[in-house]
Amino acid sequence: MSSRVHDANQDLGVAPEFIVDPELLDAISPSGDRGGIVLGSGLQGEPLTISALRSTPTRIVLVGGLYLARQVALRAMAVGAWVVVATGRPTAWHVLSQAAGTQPNGQPSPLVQIRRLSPVELPRPSEDAPLLVVHDGGPTPQDLFPPRSPWQTTVYVLPYLHPQAGAMANAADLVLMQRLPAGQAELAARIWRLPPQMMRQLTTLKDDQVVALGRNLWRPLRLVTTAKEKQILGPVRRGD
């Protein structure tokens, strides 16, 4: 049994539809799924979610700017996830701690932990308290926090595509890509065997556009940012 994901942007030469295995439907699906994080809207304005928090260990590779990575983390917090950020630039992530607020005793909320890029003991994830680990370690990250248990998702934030990150990117359950320069789009085409029209589309995405990529999945979408998120993160942008 299979299902189809329709791409309405047929006039750009992108294949109009793709056969998607049922297990991939929990990666990109209509809003309302348990564990779903609304990421943006489709080309017809329909809301789209990524099921980033689910009962199987999950890897997501994000190729793009810090804005998108922080937005995904904020939305995981909003649905009740623990968020652990391992990063070499902790000050860039302090907005998450501020957004999480404080406990009644005035201490920072334990739901958000900003860590260094070194192995640490992680909270034990569960269906009621899933775990999102954000690995912000540059274009060739070490796999310090591989998802090994149900309800754990690790997001690898890649500021740009690097040939040495190809194996990790290719093994991801879902890849979210913002606009790429021509050379990196060519590398993406080699990693995922993209046809020329898809490679070109990666170079022409607007600042608020993302392509969701998976096995037999290619879905352009537009980021949607709430007023509260704008206060925390600023306007939508491609870079950091």
Describe the protein.
With 240 residues, the protein is an alpha/beta fold. Mean pLDDT is 82; it is low at 1-33. It is globular. The protein is built from six helices and 13 strands. It has a single domain, classed as 3-Layer(aba) Sandwich (Rossmann fold), CATH 3.40.50.300.
Give a quick summary of the entry.
With 240 residues, the chain is an alpha/beta fold.
List the helices and strands and how they pair.
Elements: E1 3-6, E2 17-20, E3 29-30, E4 37-41, E5 47-50, E6 58-63, H1 66-78, E7 82-87, H2 94-100, E8 112-115, E9 131-136, E10 152-158, H3 166-170, E11 174-177, H4 182-192, H5 196-203, E12 209-214, E13 217-223, H6 227-233
Parallel strand pairs: 6-10, 6-11, 7-8, 7-9, 9-10
Antiparallel strand pairs: 1-2, 3-5, 4-5, 4-13, 11-12, 12-13
Query: First CA to last CA: what distance?
Result: 41 Å
What's the count of strands? 13
Our count of domains comes out at 1
What is the H level of CATH, i.e. the homologous superfamily? P-loop containing nucleotide triphosphate hydrolases
CATH topology label: Rossmann fold
| CATH architecture term | 3-Layer(aba) Sandwich
Total helical segments:
6
Overall SS class: alpha/beta
Order of helices and strands: EEEEEEHEHEEEHEHHEEH
Which strand order do you get reading across the main beta sheet? 3-5-4-13-12-11-6-10-9-7-8
The residue fraction in helices comes out at 10-25%
Largest sheet: 11 strands, mixed
CATH class: Alpha Beta
For the residues shown, what is the average pLDDT? 82
> Could you tell me the strand content as a percent range?
25-35%
